[in-house]
Structure formats: structure tokens, C-alpha cells
């Protein structure tokens, strides 16, 4: 159904599949804040014109190992896939490849891009900026986003090691889901509009997110904005608009992608084997009482993905209803999908 929705909204079948795969895979990996719940907002923006139906970014600068793209407000999954492919191609030739995208839009889960690099044998890094959602330590106003950062690396005999995190204690999407479901949130996630920590997700949506690790998360978020918005020549800080604040105004975020070719530093197979030995040492390390095993970054998400492929994706009722409503508004017959489960 998700792919059909984007086709009905004006994208080609190929582009629709790419965007749908990104969102559904996030649900499969246990990251619903970057999954199908985003479809209605994406479609609202496509219909209002703040997100374009362009399917490829414009290359505005290309100098050896680096390139700069202009996304022209296309869906971020499409320009993100393009940018990481270009970064990997450059890494093959130069050892490293760095690509920025300005005038971009939300690109879903950052894991998608570093996994793509790792599957090609490269180390991958992906980052994006968002509208300001977090205060500086001691500050009373949001000055920096919960900017996502992902790093992935290939591992011999295992799925890639993937770190994918927003730099707030929790993603804004998780708070939106809690508000839709009538659930509370931990007080460590956010503040109300006065800067007081809150467990009420509605108050949190009117307030600020708190950075992961306090000043450390805040500092990382600042530097991600440097690599994305400032470096790309795009928007940064308050120049980035909220995804939900005004769907007629372009989000105008920016992205950064880096691919590293391990063979440039030594035999390619040596890197994968060394990563395998490192991973095995961590996996075999002693566990604390009450703990079954330790996990590598991204291992739990990969396990959830494999389990979901067997058992199917579970959508919260509010997400399911919004998805069906969006499909029907676009003239899509949802009955077949509902009979077989929403896909």
C-alpha cells in the first residue's frame, strides 16, 4: 500500500518503491518513528508543493573525492540513495568520497545509507540536520536539532555493525507516537515550553528535546549541523523548518555522506577479517547478572528485521488508520490491503 500511495501522489513506480522500502524497513527494524507513520506528512507536503516530485538531485560541484548536490526539496530517500552511491563510487577511486546535499528533505532512517555503503565493502557515515529542538546547556531556547548520525562498517561473517542515533535522548517521532496513543514518556526525554522536564508528550511537543549525554550530545549535534547545513551551503540552525510546523514551507534540511574504501588503507579482506575478530571479542565478552548477551551496534535492529520478515509488520492503530485515510484520500482502494494486512 505504501508504494501505491506515493505513486498516486505523483512519483514514478521506481521512486515510490524506494521511499516505501525505506519506511517499511524502519518499521521492520523496530524504528517506527521513521516508518509508515511518516507517510501522511510526506503526502501532505507533496500535495502542497513543499516537497517536489523530482527524483534526482542536481550535482552543483564535483571535485575529485568530493561533490555537492542540490536536492531541490525532493524526498530525502531519493537524494540520499543518490548521494551515497556517488560517495561509494568516489571512495572506490580516491579512497574516500564525501557528498553533501543542500535544500534536502527528511531522509528516513540514516541506517539505510550506511548499510548501503557497508554492503559495498565500505565504511559509511550519514548525517542530517533538523530544525532546532534542543537547548544549549543552561539555555532556555532551542538552538540545535536532534541531528541524526549513523556509521556503518562491513564485518566478515556477520551483518554490518551499524550505529544509528539521533542526538537527542529520544527521537521526536517517538514522542509524537506516544501523544497519538495517549502514553506518557520518560522525563529524561524532553521539557515543556518553560524548560521543565515533562512526562506529558503533548507538553513535550510544545517544548524542547533533551540531548543524549547532556553536553556531549549537544556538542555532537552542533558539529553535525556544521557538516550538513554549514558545509553544504544550505540551511542550518533556525534556517531549517519543522516537518510538521507548516507543511507548505520547505523543510530545507541538509545531509552529509562519507564513504571510506578500506582497501585504500590495506587489503580489503584484512579489514573485514579484523572487524570480524573485533566483533567476536565483543560478543564473547562476559555479561553482567541478569543479562543474556551483549550486542553490537545495530544487532538488535537486524534481529528484529529478520523476525518481522517472518511474522509481518505490526502497526499501531493510529498509524494504520492514518495510512488508510491517506490512501483513500488519493483514491486508492484499501480493501485488498486490509484483508491481507497493511503493507
Automatic annotation (TrEMBL):
Q: Pfam families per the record? A: Ldh_2 (PF02615)
What InterPro entries does the entry give? Mal/L-sulf/L-lact_DH-like_ah, Mal/L-sulf/L-lact_DH-like_NADP, Mal/L-sulfo/L-lacto_DH-like_sf, Malate/L-lactate_DH-like
Which species does this protein come from?
Answer: Haloechinothrix aidingensis
The similarity comment for this entry is: Belongs to the LDH2/MDH2 oxidoreductase family.
Q: Which Gene3D superfamilies match?
A: 1.10.1530.10, Hypothetical oxidoreductase yiak, domain 2
The protein's name is Ldh family oxidoreductase
The GO terms this record gives for MF are: oxidoreductase activity
The superkingdom listed in its UniProt entry is Bacteria
Keywords for the protein's UniProt record, in alphabetical order: Oxidoreductase
Amino acid at each position: 500500500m505504501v508504494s501505491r500511495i506515493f505513486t498516486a501522489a505523483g512519483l514514478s513506480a521506481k521512486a515510490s518503491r524506494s521511499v516505501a522500502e525505506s519506511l517499511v524497513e524502519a518499521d521492520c527494524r523496530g524504528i517506527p518513528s521513521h516508518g509508515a507513520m511518516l507517510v501522511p506528512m510526506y503526502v501532505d507536503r507533496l500535495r502542497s508543493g513543499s516537497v517536489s516530485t523530482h527524483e534526482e538531485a542536481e550535482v552543483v560541484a564535483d571535485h575529485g573525492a568530493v561533490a555537492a548536490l542540490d536536492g531541490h526539496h525532493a524526498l530525502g530517500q531519493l537524494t540520499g540513495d543518490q548521494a551515497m552511491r556517488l560517495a561509494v563510487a568516489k571512495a572506490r577511486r580516491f579512497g574516500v568520497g564525501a557528498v553533501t546535499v543542500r535544500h534536502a528533505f527528511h531522509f528516513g532512517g540514516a541506517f539505510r545509507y550506511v548499510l548501503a555503503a557497508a554492503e559495498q565493502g565500505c565504511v559509511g557515515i550519514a548525517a542530517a540536520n533538523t530544525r532546532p529542538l534542543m537547548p544549549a546547556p543552561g539555555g532556555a531556547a532551542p538552538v540545535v536539532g536532534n541531528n541524526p548520525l549513523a556509521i556503518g562498517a562491513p564485518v566478515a561473517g556477520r551483518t554490518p555493525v551499524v550505529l544509528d542515533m539521533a542526538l537527542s535522548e529520544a527521537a521526536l517521532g517517538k514522542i509524537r507516537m506516544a501523544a497519538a496513543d495517549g502514553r506518557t514518556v520518560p522525563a529524561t526525554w524532553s521539557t515543556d515550553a518553560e524548560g521543565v522536564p515533562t512526562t506529558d508528550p503533548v507538553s513535550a511537543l510544545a517544548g524542547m528535546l533533551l540531548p543524549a549525554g547532556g553536553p556531549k550530545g549537544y556538542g555532537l549535534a552542533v558539529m553535525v549541523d556544521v557538516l550538513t547545513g554549514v558545509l553544504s551551503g544550505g540551511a542550518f540552525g533556525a534556517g531549517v523548518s519543522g516537518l510538521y510546523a507548516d507543511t507548505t514551507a520547505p523543510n530545507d534540511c541538509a545531509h552529509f555522506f562519507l564513504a571510506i574504501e578500506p582497501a585504500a588503507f590495506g587489503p580489503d579482506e584484512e579489514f573485514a577479517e579484523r572487524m570480524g575478530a573485533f566483533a567476536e571479542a565483543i560478543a564473547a565478552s562476559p555479561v553482567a547478572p541478569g543479562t543474556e548477551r551483549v550486542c553490537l551496534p545495530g544487532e538488535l535492529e537486524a534481529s528484529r528485521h529478520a523476525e518481522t520478515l517472518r511474522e509481518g509488520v505490526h502497526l499501531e492503530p493510529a498509524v494504520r488508520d492514518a495510512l488508510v485515510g491517506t490512501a483513500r484520500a488519493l483514491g486508492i482502494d484499501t480493501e485488498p490491503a486490509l484483508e491481507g494486512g497493511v503493507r
